[in-house]
Amino acid sequence: MTQTAEEQQQATRIYNKVQFIGRIGKNPEQKSEMAPVKFSLAVGQKDAPPMWLGVDCWELLAKEVLANKSMYKGVLVEVQGRLVTNVYNGKRYYNVVASSVEVIVL
C-alpha cells in the first residue's frame, strides 16, 4: 500500500498538544480588549515544588474565561493547548496557548 503525498506529509508533521491539570495561581486578567486573557497555573509534581506555567487564552476562549465567575485563584482546572518555550535572561519560561480551559469540580 502506497501513501499519497498528503498522507506522507501528515505522518511527518510534528504535533504540539499538551494537557495540564493544576490550580490557578493568579486570577485571569486582560490588559486590553485586543490582548489575551492571562493567568498562571501551578502544576503539582511529586516530591518537588510546583511547576508554574503561564496560560494565554485568545478570542472566544478569552471571553468565556473572563465570563466564568468560578475561575479564580486556587481553583482546579484542566488546560489543553500548545506549549511555547521562551528564554529570557538565560532563564526558560513555559507558556500554554490554551485551546480549552475547564473547571474541575471534585
CATH topology: OB fold (Dihydrolipoamide Acetyltransferase, E2P)
The CATH class turns out to be Mainly Beta
Number of helices: 2
DSSP strand content: over 45%
Number of strands: 5
Average pLDDT metric: 90
Provide the CATH architecture.
Answer: Beta Barrel
Q: Which structural class fits the helix and strand makeup?
A: alpha+beta
Mind telling me the CATH superfamily name? Nucleic acid-binding proteins
Written as H for each helix and E for each strand, in order along the chain, the element string is HEEEHEE
Topology:
Elements: H1 5-12, E1 18-24, E2 37-45, E3 48-57, H2 59-67, E4 76-88, E5 91-103
Parallel strand pairs: 3-5
Antiparallel strand pairs: 1-2, 1-4, 2-3, 4-5
Report on the architecture of this protein.
The chain has 106 residues and is of the alpha+beta class. It has one domain: Nucleic acid-binding proteins (OB fold (Dihydrolipoamide Acetyltransferase, E2P), Beta Barrel). 16% of the residues lie in helices and 49% in strands. It has two helices and five strands; from the N terminus they run αβββαββ. It has helices at residues 5-12, 59-67; strands at residues 18-24, 37-45, 48-57, 76-88, 91-103. A five-stranded mixed β-barrel has the order 1-2-3-5-4. The protein is globular. The model has no long low-confidence stretch (mean pLDDT 90).
